[in-house]
């Protein structure tokens, strides 16, 4: 058991919520790509409510937008962990960062495909 896993119940939920908000704040302040995705979500998600689409289609439109935010958070976390280990250039570090970037490219492609298919 980890010594950092001592909280249970409501205290654990409150702590976890605080950590999550800290992570969102850190991403927003420190990651330009995250801020750009937030802006994209601020535009696309409200727009989805004004489109003449089914509820399932609207859910897909919103879900792919939120998925891109999740992928960016994970990509930023991987990059931060790699940088914490070492700022030295290393092929494995490059691969990890490039794979995170590739995951974000896939997520952005999903946004384009889903929105394109629903709107056409």
From TrEMBL:
One of its GO terms (molecular function) is ATP-dependent diacylglycerol kinase activity. Its main location: membrane. It is found in: Cell inner membrane. Keywords: ATP-binding, Cell inner membrane, Cell membrane, Kinase, Lipid biosynthesis, Lipid metabolism, Magnesium, Membrane, Metal-binding, Nucleotide-binding, Phospholipid biosynthesis, Phospholipid metabolism, Transferase, Transmembrane, Transmembrane helix. It is a multi-pass membrane protein. It catalyses: a 1,2-diacyl-sn-glycerol + ATP = a 1,2-diacyl-sn-glycero-3-phosphate + ADP + H(+). GO terms for cellular component: plasma membrane. ATP binds at residues 12, 19, 31, 79, 88-90, 97-98. It is an enzyme of class 2 (transferase). Its cofactor is Mg(2+). Its EC number is 2.7.1.107. The active site is at 72 (proton acceptor). Mn(2+), Zn(2+), Cd(2+) and Co(2+) support activity to lesser extents. Substrate binds at residues 12, 72, 101. A divalent metal cation binds at residues 31, 79. InterPro entries: DAGK, DAGK_prok, DAGK_sf. Signal peptide: none annotated. The chain crosses the membrane at residues 33-53, 60-82, 102-119. One of its GO terms (biological process) is phosphatidic acid biosynthetic process. Belongs to the bacterial diacylglycerol kinase family. Catalyzes the ATP-dependent phosphorylation of sn-l,2-diacylglycerol (DAG) to phosphatidic acid. Involved in the recycling of diacylglycerol produced as a by-product during membrane-derived oligosaccharide (MDO) biosynthesis. This is Diacylglycerol kinase. It comes from Pseudomonas brassicacearum subsp. neoaurantiaca.
């Amino acid at each position: 058991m980890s010594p950092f896993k001592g909280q249970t119940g409501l205290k654990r939920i409150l702590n976890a919520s605080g950590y999550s908000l800290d992570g969102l704040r850190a991403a927003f302040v420190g990651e330009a790509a995250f801020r750009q995705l937030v802006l994209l979500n601020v535009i696309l998600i409200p727009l989805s409510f004004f489109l003449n689409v089914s509820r399932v289609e609207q859910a897909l439109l919103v879900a792919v937008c939120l998925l891109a935010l999740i992928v960016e958070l994970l990509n930023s976390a991987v990059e931060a962990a790699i940088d914490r280990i070492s700022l030295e250039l290393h092929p494995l570090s490059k691969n990890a960062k490039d794979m995170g970037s590739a995951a974000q490219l896939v997520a952005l492609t999903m946004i384009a495909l889903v929105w394109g298919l629903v709107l056409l």
